[in-house]
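User: Sequence in, structure out. Go.
Assistant: Echoing your sequence, followed by the structure tokens.
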Amino acid sequence: MMKNFRKALVCVLGVFIAVGAVLGGGLNVKANADFNIISDDFNASALDTSLWTIVNPRNDAAFAMAGAPDAMLSIAIPAGISHDIRTGGNYAPRVMQSANNTDFEIDAKFQSQLTSQYQMQGIIVEQDNNNYLRLEIYRDAATTRALAVSFKDGVPTVRYDSAIPSGNSLYLRVNRTGDQWTQYYSYDGANWTSAANFNHPLIVASVGPYAGNYATPESSSPAFTGLIAYFFNTLSPIVPEDGPIFNLPFIAAQPTSQEIVEGQTATFNVTATGSDPLIYQWQKNNINIPDAISQSYTTPATTLSDNNSTFRVIVTNFVGSATSDSATLTVIEKTPAPAPINFIANPGFESGTASWNFYTNAVGSFTAGAPAYIGTKTAKVNLVTSASNMQLYQTGISLEPNTKYKLSFAAYSSTGHDMGVNIFKHGSPYTNYGLSYTTNLGTSWQTFTAEFTSKGFTGNISDARLMFSFMGYAQAGDVYYIDDVVLEKVE
């Protein structure tokens, strides 16, 4: 369909001066250019018989498209019989299209290799069955040769016959300006070498490529398959030759269903093929998701309301679209994590002074009451006089060896004096169990957190002491407030 569109477009644009990019490559159109000769790159699964007429003089040649869908025209002729162009007629199998009797230039690219004597391939420019031009590349016993022959009333005149370097692929060009004819050949389609150049009046009616063979005796004629990659009007080539085959989108890998826990995200992926550009649009429950236009889609953090939602993607290009299968999202209710175990008893002093001990070798007191950081009570340590040993502590704390813990609490002092925090063995030799530091208190509530790894023992123990020490920091009259003491494992 795309090739027919290009051919029709070329016909319509014959009177324009220039046309921009058309179908990816563009057409270089000149004023008064002759567009009656239609370019064909034979890039289809079947020959376009609305353009080409098959001529099979001996009814023994096979015409086919080789390598479909990125195809060439194949003309296969059998051995043992001549398919030559000479006095007595044109027996070369060929395809021909109508042409106006105007100036033109045509190119043909031949992929077939000339390996045997008198295999031939070329271009016919025809007025009628007795008046035409034969412009070809053929093989003799030892060399590859360029040949040009004009036929007038069935009588041939050789215009050019000369050896050229061997090589493949072979390109042939014919330029007609008035009655002047110029033949060129090339090995790359870019650099051309002139061959025949002659004057010959001809009322052109059709043009086309052919394949042929010949031998003496005729029974020695070699088999040959001519492969024609393209036949171009140089004013309207198909660029790129054997250009893109436009394909519908195809879902090569479908999105898969996902099962996640609420609060997590889910990512859906698709793999699609087809002619670029491919445009993606993801849908949730068959409704477009704004800005979900990539090859993958990641949901926001999910809630239980997303459970059993379906997700699919529509992939579109200029040829059409394809819709993926729907993938189902299963959202599982999140199981609350177990509350961490606090190894401190009566951590907020809501049970008064239970589980806590206060010691001073001077004058002081420990009570539980306002102002609390959390709840209704807090530890209140009133140091009437300063001494060498002043501490609030709890014993009988269980720890595991080489385990990471976190201690947190809230505290302040009436003067902003600091205090020490220690965890150690409750009893001689008072081994440090991994925590010993000074807190920088203020005169209003602050929270403090310290992580440490237990040490100083090998098996599980239950003789740890947490001590808030005031000696070395407090002065007479200082009041300390401590609340919300938590000691827990760090997972």
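User: And one key feature?
Assistant: The first strand starts at residue 53 and ends at 55.
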